[in-house]
Design a protein that fits this description.
alpha/beta; Phosphorylase Kinase, domain 1; 6-stranded mixed sheet; 51 strands; globular
Length: 951
């Protein structure tokens, strides 16, 4: 071979090596360059941002799917900088949330419109300015858009009308001007947003008429907030066709004309039309029985008496009819309504005698300043609420100045969360004594209601409900929150907004880390916390940036010059003599990575894979044949993983084939690991793996067929199987035995990591079988725990594991304890924001029969009378869900306890779950549902850093 041929060959080798290397650059490196450019001039970036792969290195606030950046959540991190055009190159981005970084400023680049997969865009409480780009309208996957509390100007982009999936649209508290756009020959408008439930446009500079076309019966709006703008013209008649409306605010505008009929808006809770130029008669609110607050003040209505509806709204707490032309006497029935708290009717022509006898115990204020009241029936009686009659005839008499009700002042009342049965501690600088009397540095801000449904701040139950709801939400999401405190309730007279100072205290530390602060902020910015109706809609604004983070790992800043230099040096030192070796090694490695089963000698006669213990290898063609070409008729389940098909092997054995979709496939090595794990565990209470398929780009698992669905299916009624008390005990002991086998007899021990009612299946005899080992980990560490990324299902997850990332067998015990409580109550772990463990503890009273559990146990077993062993079973479940792992029993101890309970109930714990004398009901009347469907879970997109599996 000549020298020229050798040179050409070597050049070809160099080209091929470089080509292979380029093809194997991690996909996330495409996004690394974009992130680097985007944040080049940002200050206070998270210290974990080092290296060149934001996905593999787990950059704080960055989440990835298939090595592509899909989420940026950097809330309350004191980041300073701006968004540049580079944001548009993160093509897989689904969530962008930079809320509460007051140093983020400048304009939003037009390139934001390139993020076609974006579902959440939240920039609450920053300092962005300039117009909102028209290109935002190209984000047709967007469901949540929150740009409030900035300095945006210009008009509402007409292109917003293209956001056909948007549910939440909040641009309040900016400087946006001009009309509200509607669709016409010039383009789209907001009337096209038929999936929107929230129009929050208050505190801007909007002007012009609100067009009739804006509203239609196709809309599902709940909150229409147009307050504190410069809108004029009449209120559209068409608004009355949007029957879903709950809150309407047109106050502090220049609206004129008569109020249209809104008699069909029977869900309305808050109506505020105050401070406009409305004329005609007061609107007729008869029949709007959900109304809690009505404000029609400071308009030019025709003179009239107090309307009859004012005394006949059962949930009305606040009635404001100041300066509305009212005249005549005040009916005593107005003050007798059980919910009424404040009546404000100053600057009218009301006369006669004021009679407040037998008034509501909730009444706090009657303000009748500047009317014509001549007498007060209860003048010499003790009144426990404020009455203001200054400027009335009764207060113009000689000596009336001494009357308390002739003063304009009101008694002051405030609120602050009190210590919880402890004494507040004196704390050092920057620290505050929490409600649990622990010195810590809280995350602080202001919680504001845009339509508060109460007036009596002496009624502390309102604030207690808010505190309990906030704490319950944080803790149900396993955030590191110990307690919350509310204080300083204030009503802003200019906007009618009601605010409270909020302090959120950390748990297990005297301060939050960055992730803790960002997670708490995310719950509030993205409306994850759902407040009681009397405080909805709300928003949160943070105080000064949280700067006292818990100790974080040290790091150095990424230096792009060093990275580039290293790459260049690597190419330079690539000598020809090594190229051939590198090329050969890389090719061999690629082949192995492509197929980790390449070294498994497959016996074509038996189909057995020698490295596995009992699991069979199937070809794609075999499973295609056995499942009748994967036909729809053979589909028995579907979910995020893919589809599950019923199949019949040549032996006649019925199996379930779980076929992964392309989007959910694991890496080949991970798939191999899972198969090896499943093939080595064999127990009658564990679902058996029959085999697998890794052929023609497919990943399939073949399980034994389990006909009677999951525990969750039975408890919910989905499977049609009713389980009595003894049946539930036997299911519990079966599942516990399966887990005990994994923990104590498997070598090395296995931690399941995703125990829940939907992962425990019931065979044809209702024997329990633990399933789904996709998240399982081998506990082969001498330390007794495995340090690993947090994965699991919300509501079942061990809080200690969540906080420490140290997984132990006791983590499974916690999840099993939650499942035991499901068996007792038939409730989901998190239902309507309530956590099952706390709900059981709330009603628990060990001094009463059955621990006072009748209020919460499943009616199906309640009807059995007095289930034997119920109290002991609940006590055992509560031991399993202790906060600290060391306080929980082992699974072997759990098995023993349940066996004792079954014996107490008069049955043999070792008998088969169903026998010829024991039957069970299937009330579905037809098809039995199957256990292979992934259920949706509401919190799965809240914190993607925690892999949340469906319930």
């Amino acid at each position: 071979m000549g020298k020229r041929s050798i040179v050409i060959l070597l050049l070809l080798l160099i080209f091929q090596v470089l080509l292979v290397a380029a093809q194997n650059v991690p996909a996330s490196n495409q996004d690394f360059t974009a992130l680097l450019s985007l944040t080049e001039f940002w200050e206070n970036k998270p210290p974990s941002w080092v290296g060149t792969d934001p996905c593999a290195a787990s950059w704080e606030g960055i989440e990835c799917t298939n090595s592509r950046v899909t989420s940026i959540k950097l809330l309350s991190m004191n980041i300073k900088g701006s968004l540049t055009a580079d944001i548009g190159t993160l093509s897989e981005l689904e969530t962008l949330d930079l809320s509460y970084n007051k140093g983020m400023s400048g304009r939003i680049p037009d390139e934001i419109g390139n993020l076609r997969k974006l579902k959440t865009l939240s920039l609450v409480g920053c300092d962005f300015s300039g117009p909102i780009p028209e290109s935002t309208g190209a984000l047709n996957q967007l469901t949540f858009l929150a740009l409030n509390l900035n300095r945006f100007s210009g008009n509402i982009p007409r292109s917003f009308g293209n956001l056909s999936n948007v549910n939440w649209l909040d641009i309040a508290d900016n400087q946006i001007e001009g009309p509200i756009p509607i669709s016409d020959e010039e383009g789209p408008g907001l009337d096209m947003l038929h999936k929107a439930e929230h129009f929050h446009f208050g505190n801007n500079r909007l002007s012009g008429h609100v067009q009739d076309k804006l509203f239609s019966s196709n809309m599902i709006l709940k909150h229409l907030l147009l307050d504190n703008n410069k809108l004029n013209g009449s209120i559209p008649d068409t608004m009355g066709s949007v029957k879903t409306l709950m809150v309407i605010r047109y106050d502090h505008n220049q609206m004129s004309g008569e109020v249209p009929s809104i008699s069909d808006l029977t869900k309305l809770t808050d109506l505020n039309l105050g401070n406009n130029k409305l004329t005609g008669s007061l609107p007729d609110l008869t029949g709007l029985n959900d109304l809690a607050s009505v404000d029609l003040s400071n308009n030019s209505f025709n003179s009239s008496g107090i309307p009859s509806w004012a005394s006949n709204l059962p949930y009305l707490t606040t009635l404001s009819l100041e300066d509305t032309g009212l005249q005549g006497e005040i009916p005593n029935s107005l003050f007798k309504q059980s919910s009424i708290e404040a009546v404000k009717m100053k600057n009218n022509q009301l006369n006669g005698t004021l009679d407040v006898g037998n008034s509501s115990p909730n009444l706090e204020l009657i303000d009748l300043e500047n009317n014509m009241i001549t007498d007060f029936a209860q003048e010499n009686q003790q009144i426990n609420f404020d009455i203001i009659l200054a400027g009335n005839s009764i207060c113009l008499e000689t000596g009336a100045d001494s009357k308390k009700y002739c003063s304009k002042s009101q008694s002051t009342s405030t609120y602050s969360t009190q210590p919880n049965s402890c004494t507040a501690l004196p704390c050092s600088s920057n620290m505050v004594s929490s409600p649990k009397c622990i010195c810590a540095i809280p995350y602080t801000g202001v919680l504001t209601s845009r339509a508060v449904g109460f007036s009596n701040i002496r009624n502390t139950s309102y604030f207690k409900d808010l505190e309990n709801g906030l704490l319950s939400t944080f803790q149900s999401l396993y955030l590191p929150v110990d307690s919350v405190s509310l204080s300083n309730p204030v009503t802003d007279t200019a906007t009618s907004y009601f605010s409270l100072d909020l302090q959120v205290f950390p748990s297990q530390s005297d301060r939050f880390n960055r992730t803790g602060v960002s997670s708490v902020s995310f719950v509030l910015a993205n409306q994850i916390y759902k407040p009681p109706e009397f405080f909805s809609p709300y928003y949160f604004s943070s105080n000064d940036s949280y700067e006292f983070y818990a100790e974080e790992p040290s790091s150095s800043k990424t230096n792009t010059g060093i990275i580039a230099g290293a790459v260049a040096s690597g190419v330079v030192v690539l000598v020809l003599s090594i190229l051939v070796v590198i090329f050969a090694i890389r090719q061999k490695k690629r082949a192995k990575e492509f197929n980790p089963f390449a070294n498994w000698e497959q016996n074509n006669n038996s189909g057995n894979a020698p490295q596995l213990k009992g699991a069979r290898w199937f070809s794609f063609e075999e499973l295609k044949k056995y499942s009748n070409n994967f036909c729809e008729a053979n589909t028995i389940g579907a979910g995020g993983y893919g589809k599950v098909y019923q199949a019949v092997l040549p032996s006649g054995e019925l199996v379930a084939v779980k076929r992964a979709s392309q989007e959910s496939m694991q890496g080949a090595v991970e798939f191999k690991t899972e198969i090896e794990l499943l093939s080595r565990v064999h127990h009658k209470n564990l679902v058996g793996l029959v085999g697998f398929c890794y052929d023609k780009g497919e990943q399939m698992l073949v399980y034994e067929y389990i006909p009677n669905g999951t525990i969750m299916d039975s408890l919910s009624g989905k499977s049609g199987i009713r389980m009595n008390w003894i049946r539930r005990l036997k299911v519990a002991v079966g599942a516990a035995r399966g887990l005990a086998y994994l923990h104590e007899l498997a070598d090395p021990p296995i931690i399941h990591r995703d125990i829940k009612s939907s992962n425990i299946l019931l065979d044809d005899h209702l024997n329990a079988k633990v399933a789904d080992f996709g998240l399982s980990k081998l506990n082969d560490s001498d330390r007794g725990h495995v340090t690993t990324q947090v994965k699991g299902t919300m509501g079942y997850m061990d809080p200690e594991y969540y906080m420490t990332q140290q997984l132990t067998e006791k983590s499974d015990v916690y999840s099993f304890g939650v499942t035991m409580l499901e068996l007792v109550t038939a409730r989901k772990p998190i239902e309507q924001g309530k956590f099952i463990v706390r709900e059981v503890l709330r009603v628990l009273d060990r001094s009463k029969e059955f621990h006072n559990l009748h209020a919460i146990i499943d009616p199906t077993i309640k009807h059995e009378g007095n289930p034997k062993g119920l109290e002991k079973f609940v006590d055992l479940a509560l031991k399993c869900v202790k906060d600290h792992a060391e306080e929980r029993p082992t699974m072997a101890e759990v098995v023993k306890e349940i066996e004792n309970i079954i014996q107490l109930a008069g049955f043999n714990p070792n008998a088969e779950s169903a026998s010829t004398s024991e039957t069970y009901d299937n009330v579905s009347g037809g098809k039995i549902y199957h256990p292979y469907v992934d259920e949706d879970f509401a919190y799965s997109s809240v914190f993607p850093s925690v892999k949340v599996e469906p319930q």
